[in-house]
Amino acid sequence: MAFFEVKNISIKFGGLKALDNISFAVDQGEVYAIIGPNGAGKTTLFNCINGIYSPNTGEILFKGKNLCGKKPDKIAKMGIARTFQNIELFNNMNTMENIMLGRHIYMKTGLFRGAFLWGKRSFAGREEISHRKKVEEIIDFLDLQSARNKFVGGLPYGTQKQIELARALALEPELLLLDEPCAGMNSEEKQDMIFWVKDIQDELGITILLIEHDMNMVMDISDRILVLNFGSPITEGTPEEVQKHPEVLKAYLGEDDGECAA
């Protein structure tokens, strides 16, 4: 049984087929990248995986359980977390508070109710201490100590992307979906993100499904790559195999698609 598997997924919006018979499997511990020109269906695929969209046909299996028809919160509780292409943080909350939001699925007292149940000896108090300890570990892991108590709205863009990654890690996922983690970053910030992704794979043992425009990053950290174009698969393989494939070269460098974008 595959750790994560997509079987014959298709989805239409009106008369437009956004995904057409997509299938692939991801091994536990892998970094598996999905690339393709703009409009290839990459983010639509992520939206199907974490329950925002429901595919018309096919199955999405995580450790043998079908995700199709399940709501995003249920999928998160199963062990799948996600970052988004556009930052989805609360600007008027500090870094610690934003990351704590990622612990909500584990909070028996509720995120806000627990804040009003004072006393370290109460269940709510003990629970909050436990969650804060986990968040502190993530802050240390991603080197966010200097931003801990700062409002995220005033932080640099690259730091905000790190905080969004930290919030996803706070769910303690087994599978992490990264939707363009390097988008909008400068070269130094991108290099840092590459290190974090490799550390998440190597030190935390989390399986990563990645969408990214930066082809240097994709080729550097991916174990295998799936290439999509117009909602259909072109090829799948190692970075070396994929970058030599004639259909991939045509999709990226062909006369009709002069833009090289993943």
Strand order in the largest sheet = 6-7-8-3-9-10
The CA-CA distance between the termini, in Å, is 29 Å
- Major sheet details: 6 strands, mixed
Mean of pLDDT: 87
Strand runs, count: 10
Strand content: 15-25%
Question: Structural class, judged by helices and strands?
Answer: alpha/beta
In the predicted model, the low-confidence regions spanning at least 5 consecutive residues are 111-120, 255-262
Radius of gyration: 19 Å
Number of H/I helices: 9
Q: Give the ordered list of helices and strands.
A: EEEHEEHEHHHEHEHEEHH
- Overall form: globular
Give the proportion of residues in helices. 25-40%
Report on the structure:
By secondary structure, the chain is an alpha/beta fold. It has 9 helices and 10 strands. The protein has helices spanning 42-49, 72-78, 95-100, 123-141, 157-169, 187-202, 215-221, 239-244, 246-253; strands spanning 4-13, 16-26, 31-35, 57-62, 65-66, 80-82, 175-179, 207-211, 224-229, 232-237. The strands form 2 sheets. A 6-stranded mixed β-sheet has the order 6-7-8-3-9-10, with helices on both faces. Strand 7 (175-179), helix 6 and strand 8 (207-211) form a beta-alpha-beta unit. The longest helix has 19 residues, at 123-141. The protein is globular.
TL;DR of this structure?
The relative contact order is 0.18. The longest helix is centred in the middle third of the chain and has 19 residues, at 123-141. With 262 residues, the protein is an alpha/beta fold.
Layout: helices, strands, pairs:
Elements: E1 4-13, E2 16-26, E3 31-35, H1 42-49, E4 57-62, E5 65-66, H2 72-78, E6 80-82, H3 95-100, H4 123-141, H5 157-169, E7 175-179, H6 187-202, E8 207-211, H7 215-221, E9 224-229, E10 232-237, H8 239-244, H9 246-253
Parallel strand pairs: 3-8, 3-9, 6-7, 7-8
Antiparallel strand pairs: 1-2, 1-4, 4-5, 9-10
